[in-house]
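Task card 7
Instruction: Convert sequence to structure tokens.
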Amino acid sequence: MTARDSNAEAYQVMAEIQVTVRRIVRRGLEKIAGKAWYIDGSPPGLFERLVERKEKEVAIDRFDDEYQELISFASLDDLAEIVEYNEDLSKLLAVIAPKNTLVDRLREIEALRLKLAATVPLDDSDIDNLLKHHQDIREALARRLKKPGDVTPPAAPAPAAGTAAEPDAEKNAAADESPADDFDTLVVDVDGLRAENVEPTPDHGTVVAEVDLSASNEQMNGSEEVVEVERAMASGDHVEVLRVLHHEVISVAEAVYQRDVDRTHPVWETLRASGWYDRKKADMALAPLELFYEVAEEARDRQRSGADLDELKAYLAETEFSNLLLSLREMFMRHKL
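Output:
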């Protein structure tokens, strides 16, 4: 086998390892923390990094508008960090390897992946290590599958050696980390929920996403929103329910940043009073909504009680409001909104 053939095989093996481990980690996280695992199941800072990578990939239209799970943008180092951070997950994955062993293994494979991504040929020792890691993971999964009640599928067999690697096999390579945006430079929040490229406008030292006054995004008044959402609930059109709610979430988020204490939440109140939210919360993974409205209501109450701008900033930073808005954006995207 030539060095070129060996590295072609290494690309394929590496892609299989990434896909397999991502699937395992995601399923473990969903079992522990639900579909909104990126809120409760991941270490600080990881969610923002995954969103940043996803934005870059979507911006160059790699996926033909298909929804992509956030975990698809996690490097092996990210996955190691998740396992290291989440004790419940590490216990769940102990059937594959002990926590420290799994973390070290993933980071060793990541070092090889970065070498491949930089088009540096792997030497014989590198290839041997990669194939051993690959085999260890496959054998661990095979042992795990023998236990009753397990639903984790075995890894797909690697393509034959010498097969040309897919150009996009490494498209989700690790990106440079960047710190979360400061409150005063935050643009992604409301802008991200709207999924449009809107420039922010300053408001007494606070950056706020500019309101889009186009007809398609014009804010409906409270009574119209309630009529729309009640009609959608009656017809069982849950996507339409979320579409109307999406309008309100954008408006409420803007109200928080603009310190508008008069903004009410009629759609949310209707969904809670009717029981729709409680019925659909688990199946549709809507948990971020509840926390969002709790924070928005508390921010409004604090301002009514005399809280100044600095106190509002501190409260929103404490509750990680920017991350909450990113999680809402992810939730709405999952439902094609």
